[in-house]
TrEMBL record:
Organism: Azotobacter beijerinckii
Name of protein: HNH domain-containing protein
Pfam families xref list: HNH
Organism placement in taxonomy: Bacteria, Pseudomonadati, Pseudomonadota, Gammaproteobacteria, Pseudomonadales
Domain HNH span(s) in chain numbering: 108-152
One MF term in the entry's GO annotations: endonuclease activity
Residue ranges that the Swiss-Prot or TrEMBL entry lists as coiled coil: none
Gene3D superfamilies assigned to the protein according to its UniProt record, in alphabetical order: 1.10.30.50
CDD domains with a match to the protein in the record: HNHc (cd00085)
């Protein structure tokens, strides 16, 4: 749920670059003959990603051991290899791969920066959408947990679609839709839930909740918050022991209101909840 800039490549660029590394001239020419079709598919995907309708794109469903022809005389395995070998392992393709990965800096856009991006993940799986296998706009930097947990699901309903960090609507990134609650326990803890604003369209509401649940963000945010909370409680008991409750509350607000963190960052949401929690601000902890 963190926005990142969309890759600045023409839709057919990476396909052409990866193909250029194929040594066999006949194979290279055969793959190049499909570049117009691949470009059209890419343009359609990008338009649908902006409109939130990639769920309408029909997936290729192949049985075990089957390797169907996807476009012209090119088979699925050849398009998958274009990614796995020519993009991931060969220098020209790898340059594109690395530039997409580095654009996310240290924050995985899918989980809101809990993890650091380690690899690229296909928004629509390459096994089912092989013509999109090397399209940069279908490749999203992902941390290990987000990539491992995701697998290759097929979403066929509008409300199931995961949030796309390059193209999706601003509300997912600019509005607060994750909230935290302070448990009044010893030690206290922070729990998170997805709670989009009531003004959102039902389909967007469902998409946010689905994304939140799919990537297990409640649990992963809570684990990060527990580490931070234990340090904060220690500080309240020592360095900030003599600070009046109102000043402590103002301190919590200053972090919760900080503009350096995006609206649904686990830390921002946590501090906003703490600042509003009278029990936390006033108790002896
Ligand atoms: Zn992640």
């Amino acid at each position: 749920m963190k926005r990142i800039s969309r890759p600045d490549y023409a839709p057919e660029y990476a396909y052409g670059v990866c193909i250029s590394a194929i040594v066999d001239e006949e194979e290279r020419n055969r793959m190049m003959a499909a570049i117009g079709d691949v470009r059209d598919t890419a343009v359609d995907f990008i338009e649908r990603a902006i409109a939130g309708s990639t769920f309408e794109l029909p997936p290729l469903i192949a049985g075990r051991g089957e390797d169907p022809i996807v476009v012209a005389d090119i088979r699925k395995s050849e398009l998958v290899k274009l990614y796995e070998y020519y993009m991931v392992q060969r220098p020209l393709g790898r340059k594109i791969y690395d530039s997409i990965l580095l654009a996310a800096e240290d924050n995985c856009p899918t989980c809101g920066g809990i993890g650091r991006p380690r690899s690229l993940d296909h928004y629509l799986p390459k096994a089912n959408y092989p013509k999109l296998s090397v399209l940069p706009h279908n490749l999203i930097p992902a941390c290990r947990d987000c990539n491992t947990d995701k697998g290759n699901p097929l979403f066929t309903q509008p409300h199931e679609q995961l949030i796309h960090p390059y193209f999706d609507q601003a509300c997912f990134f600019d509005q607060a839709w994750i909230i935290a609650t302070v448990t009044h326990t010893q030690p206290c803890a922070i729990t998170y839930e997805a709670s989009p604003p009531g003004a959102w369209r039902p389909v967007d509401h469902q998409r946010a909740v689905n994304h939140f649940d799919f990537f297990d963000i409640a649990k992963r945010y809570s684990i990060k918050a527990a580490e931070e909370l234990s340090v904060l409680v220690d500080q309240r008991r020592s360095l900030m022991r003599d600070l009046p409750a109102e000043s402590f509350k103002a301190y919590l607000h200053s972090i919760g209101d900080s503009s350096t963190l995006f609206p649904n960052h686990w830390r921002k949401v946590m501090y906003k909840a703490l600042a509003l929690d009278e029990w936390f601000c006033n108790s002896q902890l």
